[in-house]
UniProtKB/TrEMBL annotation:
<dbReference type="InterPro" id="IPR026511">
    <property type="entry name" value="PTHB1"/>
</dbReference>
<feature type="coiled-coil region">
    <location>
        <begin position="365"/>
        <end position="392"/>
    </location>
</feature>
<feature type="domain" description="PTHB1 hairpin">
    <location>
        <begin position="629"/>
        <end position="731"/>
    </location>
</feature>
<dbReference type="Pfam" id="PF23339">
    <property type="entry name" value="PTHB1_CtH"/>
</dbReference>
<dbReference type="GO" id="GO:0016020">
    <property type="term" value="C:membrane"/>
</dbReference>
<protein>
    <recommendedName>
        <fullName>Protein PTHB1</fullName>
    </recommendedName>
</protein>
<feature type="domain" description="PTHB1 platform">
    <location>
        <begin position="521"/>
        <end position="627"/>
    </location>
</feature>
<dbReference type="Pfam" id="PF14728">
    <property type="entry name" value="PTHB1_GAE"/>
</dbReference>
<dbReference type="Pfam" id="PF14727">
    <property type="entry name" value="PHTB1_N"/>
</dbReference>
<feature type="domain" description="PTHB1 C-terminal helix bundle">
    <location>
        <begin position="734"/>
        <end position="808"/>
    </location>
</feature>
<dbReference type="GO" id="GO:0060271">
    <property type="term" value="P:cilium assembly"/>
</dbReference>
<dbReference type="InterPro" id="IPR055363">
    <property type="entry name" value="PTHB1_hp_dom"/>
</dbReference>
<dbReference type="InterPro" id="IPR055362">
    <property type="entry name" value="PTHB1_pf_dom"/>
</dbReference>
<dbReference type="GO" id="GO:0034464">
    <property type="term" value="C:BBSome"/>
</dbReference>
<dbReference type="InterPro" id="IPR028073">
    <property type="entry name" value="PHTB1_N_dom"/>
</dbReference>
<keyword id="KW-0175">Coiled coil</keyword>
<feature type="domain" description="PTHB1 N-terminal">
    <location>
        <begin position="1"/>
        <end position="357"/>
    </location>
</feature>
């Protein structure tokens, strides 16, 4: 049990299934008893009034002094001097359409049960409007009397001078009622408007203002003065409660409880202090002060916690049995400082803050001599048992895991022909773009709900529906997924591969995924066209076999059945590629006006030629090679185009940041001028603000266009990189492991981030390769890795790419020597200045480093 709890001094529950709110609690000597002991008064929304005189340590039936059924819900209770010919305390009860004043009198009994109490109606005021809350006080500076001010739901405040009605006024700019409190010193009222501002209205201003609502037409005449607030403070949130406090040794202050803050204001509206709350408060109550001028108040939270503050300092925290909606401080039975709390279900508790001593005494532990030899022996036996059980249990778990695994199997059927009728309507371009509908079916060992089927595509390929949810039983009907090419985009495909995945959750809650690769036909991207004799970019592929009929290699393009030594391909978004077979030699030429467009056709040609001669009975193994010069110039042009767009994008981002800083500075200056009580000229600040905003919007449009251009440049660079990798492999006859290293170093996957782009990542990877397996000497191994930030130009990157290609063509091997590889499979590198990586390392020291190539 925690020590920090609100200790129960007395508690009870008022009624069953009744509702209470903030105004339903009042503490006062309402029966005017000579001993001046406070009574606890509660009223529910069901119209039941109850008065308690607590007698600790627990609730007794005689503690309930009075229980009285009224005909209307009780919204608020207040005690005060409300009858003109008497100085006694009376009880004011606010109903939705009535304000009633009652006297509570004791009738001395002649039996052992004691006195009984009677409720007598002194007078009442019928209200024309539905009321929300009311406040009492000596309005106008009268002494010895308490008047009423009732706030209605439509913003009217009605003033009653005890038995008589005085006047009514509408608050300006009203939308919803807020808390209302009276300030005796300045004879004014404080409330919170729907604009989240705390406003103060003088009683004299309310009395002299016009009676009706403010007119919206200039022609309408309204009698009296226009009602304006004496001061207003914007707190930025709605107010839940307001209290006016005037304690000894402390200045008079106005406390406002917001949704996430508490504010302390002076009587002129200036902020004394503000406390930001890290919880959601339900109610609060200021109850005293300290000798040094600090104000004490308590806040109840929605987490059933009572917090006591001195100004902004938390002094105490205690747990409550429930969430209070109203708090008061009372003096009961000569005990000062009791906390009276009421929750929404009617639980009333009189508690104090303190700690109760724990009566539990721990028994003494049994002492015995320790035999360390027996302990060691027992420990060894237990460790042996743990080791054996862990090994056997892991085997058993793995065995059962694979035997009883809930799984889904996926089957994908790719039709041999394209769809007869394309789903594309041809609005994007004149010609009709073909589509391909594949069938995907699932088989499962049990029932699965919400299986997410996703078709993964890359531009220009798209799909009719990327993601869909299905429910699986043992078998489902095949679902169709239709692929087509977006011919409005200028991007080119890199390969014909795409993926389909299905994600699901087992009954044990384990997420799993099943996926399958889909190889789309080449006719999805290219259509046949007439071969082009003259082209800008040309690539020659050598083989060791006589030329074959190209329509045998690309049978889907053989409708015309020409001579078979020339075939043309045209992408649906524009570029053309021509494949020519030599009549006198064993060579083939691919040519196009677009360099990156050669990537897909060249890759398909090499793969299909290898597949065509895979079962060849010729003793000489089929070989395909590239002996020409590498197209580095064209590749470097793609790098420069991509890098220049990155630089342009970075420059635009910097300009937007500068304009945004200027925009915020102008806003701060305008806000300062608007908040000034004596407005000064704007000096064209509004014109500069509009101009800056227009510039920011223009830069944003340019950034959007630059991002689209960067995506197209990245696609072209990706295709060009894929083509260069293929030519390097054919030129140097690289095996699979060597090609994986090369592809990881010069990656065809171009991903651009503002912090790290393709250029700096590729430069770092190639530099690592040049200083390890492609290093010529120890001097090359000492080359420092370039920093992973955007460079000023691409000269170093192009130099390193050319150096890597040169060393590969001169016999360099993409394999690490056995003495250069450490135990973790990474090369051991000598760095001339390791302080650039670890400051603690001395110079000329060898350390182990590796790079993960994705």
């Amino acid at each position: 049990m925690s020590l920090f709890k609100a200790r129960d001094w007395w508690s009870t529950t008022a009624g069953d299934n009744e509702e209470y709110d903030t105004g339903c609690l009042c503490v006062a000597n309402i029966d005017n008893s000579p001993d001046n002991v406070d009574k606890v008064i509660v009223g529910s929304y069901f119209g039941i009034l109850r008065i308690y005189s607590p007698q600790p340590p627990k609730y007794h039936p005689e503690d309930l002094m009075l229980e009285y059924q009224l005909q209307q819900p009780i919204l608020q209770l207040e005690a005060g001097k409300f009858v003109s010919e008497s100085d006694a305390l009376y009880l004011a009860i606010l109903h939705p359409r009535k304000l009633s004043i009652y006297s509570i009198t004791a009738i001395t009994g002649s039996v052992e049960h004691g006195s009984q109490y009677a409720v007598k109606l002194a007078y009442e005021h019928l209200l024309e409007r539905t009321s929300c809350n009311f406040v009492v006080g000596s309005f106008g500076g009268v002494k010895g009397k308490d008047f009423f001010c009732v706030q209605s739901m439509d913003g009217m405040v009605s003033f009653f001078e005890q038995e008589s009605f005085a006047f009514g006024r509408f608050l300006p700019g009203f939308l919803l009622p807020g808390p209302l409190k009276y300030i005796p010193k300045s004879d004014s009222f404080v409330t919170c408007s729907t604009s989240r501002s705390v406003e103060c209205y003088k009683y004299q201003s309310l009395a002299q203002a016009s009676e009706g609502r403010e007119s919206t037409k200039l022609s309408d005449k309204v009698s009296g003065k226009r009602l304006t607030s004496d001061w207003s403070v914007n707190i930025g949130e709605c107010a839940k409660e307001i209290y006016m406090v005037s304690f000894q040794n402390a200045p008079s202050s106005i406390f406002v409880l917001g949704e996430r803050s508490i504010f302390c204001l002076r009587e002129n509206g200036n902020v004394r202090f503000m406390k930001k709350l890290e919880y959601d408060p339900s109610t609060f109550y200021p109850y005293g002060s300290t000798p040094d001028g600090g104000i004490l108040y308590m806040i109840a939270t929605h987490t059933d916690t009572l917090l006591v503050y001195k100004d902004i300092t938390l002094c105490w925290a205690a747990q409550m049995p429930s969430m209070p909606v109203a708090l008061r401080a009372a003096e009961l039975k000569d005990l000062k400082g009791l906390i009276i709390s009421l929750d929404q279900n009617g639980r009333i508790q009189a508690s104090y803050l303190g700690t109760d001593p724990s009566m539990f005494i721990a028994p003494p532990t049994e002492s015995r001599e320790i035999n360390y030899e027996e302990l060691d022996k027992e420990m060894k036996e237990l460790q042996k048992l743990i080791k054996e059980s862990s090994v056997s249990s892991s085997k058993f778990v793995l065995k059962n895991l694979f035997q009883n695994e809930e799984s889904i199997t996926m089957q994908v059927h790719i039709p041999p022909q394209l769809d007869q009728t394309s789903i594309i309507d041809g609005n994007k371009k004149d010609e009709d773009v073909p589509s391909l509908t594949i069938k995907v079916s699932f088989k499962s060992s049990s029932t699965f709900n919400n299986v997410v089927v996703t078709a993964h595509t890359e531009k220009p390929l798209t799909v009719n529906q990327h993601t869909r949810k299905i429910s699986l039983e043992s078998y489902t009907r095949p679902m169709g997924i239709t692929y087509y090419v977006d011919n409005s985009d200028s991007m080119l495909p890199i390969n014909l591969t795409t993926w389909i995945s299905g994600s699901y959750v087992t009954s044990q809650g384990a997420p799993k995924t099943v996926q399958q690769q889909v190889n789309l036909p080449m006719k999805m991207y290219c259509k046949p066209c007439q071969p082009v004799k003259v082209a800008t970019h040309k690539i020659t592929i050598d083989t060791n076999r006589n030329p074959v009929n190209l329509y045998d290699i690309f049978p889907e393009y053989g409708e015309s059945k020409g001579p078979g030594n020339a075939i043309g391909f045209q992408y649906y978004n524009g570029p053309k590629v021509t494949l020519l077979a030599s009549k006198t030699s064993q060579r083939y030429r691919l040519q196009s006006d677009n360099f990156e467009a050669l990537a897909l056709v060249t890759r398909q040609f090499v793969e299909r030629m290898k597949a065509n001669f895979a079962n060849d009975k010729n003793p000489d193994k089929f070989k395909v090679s590239f002996t020409g010069s590498l197209p580095l110039h064209e590749f470097f042009e793609l790098i420069d185009a991509h890098f220049n767009i990155r630089l342009e994008q970075e420059e635009l981002h910097e300009k937007v940041q500068q304009e945004a800083e200027q925009y915020r500075a102008i806003q701060r200056r305008l806000l300062t001028r608007f908040k000034d009580k004596t407005p000064s000229p704007l000096l064209n600040l509004d014109v500069i603000l509009d101009s800056t905003h227009a510039t920011i919007m223009e830069l944003a449009d340019k950034i959007k266009k630059t991002e689209e251009a960067l995506s197209r440049a990245a696609n072209a660079l990706s295709c060009g990189t894929s083509l260069l990798l293929l030519l390097l492999r054919l030129n140097m006859n690289l095996n699979d492991s060597e090609f994986r290293i090369l592809e990881a170093t010069l990656s065809p996957i171009v991903i651009d981030l503002r912090d790290q782009g393709w250029e700096e990542l590729t430069d770092a990877a190639i530099t690592h390769l040049l200083r390890t397996c492609l290093a010529k000497s120890a001097k090359d191994q000492a080359v420092n890795l370039p920093p992973l930030k955007i460079p000023s130009d691409t000269q170093k990157l192009k130099k390193h790419i050319a150096m890597m290609c040169d060393r590969l063509t001169k016999g360099g091997k993409l394999a690490f020597e056995s003495n250069d590889v450490t135990t973790n499979g990474l090369p051991e590198v000598v760095v001339s200045d390791p302080k650039q990586i670890l400051d603690d390392y001395p110079s000329k020291e060898t350390f182990k480093a590796g790079i993960i190539l994705a």
